[in-house]
Amino acid sequence: MNTPLPKIKISGQGSFTPPPTPLPLTSKSEIGQYVTWESITRSYAGILKEWDSNVAIVQLPDGTMKAVET
Amino acid sequence: MTVNISTVARNGAGNYIVDLIDIGAIVANGYLNIYTGTKPASPQVAATGTLLANLNFALPAFAAFNNGSAYAGPIASDTSLPNSGIASYFRIFSRDNVAIMDGDISLTGGGGDIQFDNINFIAGGVVAISSLLAIMPQ
């Protein structure tokens, strides 16, 4: 009979802190901020990743990137 | 039937496994990723689901095993999650981006290998791991 050897175990504790309320996206928003803005049809929120001139590149919660003119 | 291994053997086996996290030079530190979805059958299988969080280990990642267990050093939090989703499993990678081990995530008290107070991760939030203990059973 073959008996398997013991397997390593991991025991950890962690926490998740929700993001702060998103700040309105403006030309003064800083990279890394959680920002929100509205289009004609709906509102969005995401992480400001970079500025390309006056266009904000924002990552949405689904991972997609969106360019927003400010 | 069971096989019992000595404390020396437990420490040696445990050190060998966790020291794999420190091997490599592609990235500065081994790291732990958290994903949505079903845990793959083994670390040899590509990760699936949405990447929710990326946390870096210290170097070395774990202290030396003592009496069959070892704690991880300080783990850097992910301070701005790129995606939202329900955290389901984690994968630990070496400094060469090689998957070393997978484990389950659950709410506190839910039996996961790493337990969080909240597994509904939201983009922009912060994920922290306050303690991580590796145990090589007897």
Offer a quick outline of the entry.
The complex is a heterodimer of chains A (70) and B (138). Chain A has 70 residues and is mainly beta. Chain A is 0% helix and 51% strand.
SSE blueprint:
The complex is a heterodimer of chains A (70) and B (138).
Chain A: E1 9-17, E2 23-24, E3 34-38, E4 43-52, E5 55-59, E6 65-69
Parallel strand pairs in A: 2-3
Antiparallel strand pairs in A: 3-4, 4-5, 5-6
Chain B: H1 7-19, E1 31-35, E2 51-56, E3 69-71, E4 85-86, E5 89-93, E6 99-107, E7 114-116, E8 120-121, E9 126-135
Parallel strand pairs in B: 6-7
Antiparallel strand pairs in B: 1-2, 1-5, 3-9, 4-8, 5-6
What Rg of chain B, in angstroms, do the CA atoms define?
15 Å
Strand order of the largest sheet of chain A: 2-3-4-5-6
Placed side by side, the strands forming the largest sheet of chain B appear as 2-1-5-6-7
The count of strands of chain B amounts to 9
Shape, principal axes of CA atoms of chain A: elongated
Structural class of chain B: mainly beta
| Biggest pleated sheet of chain B | 5 strands, mixed
**Count of helical segments of chain B?**
1
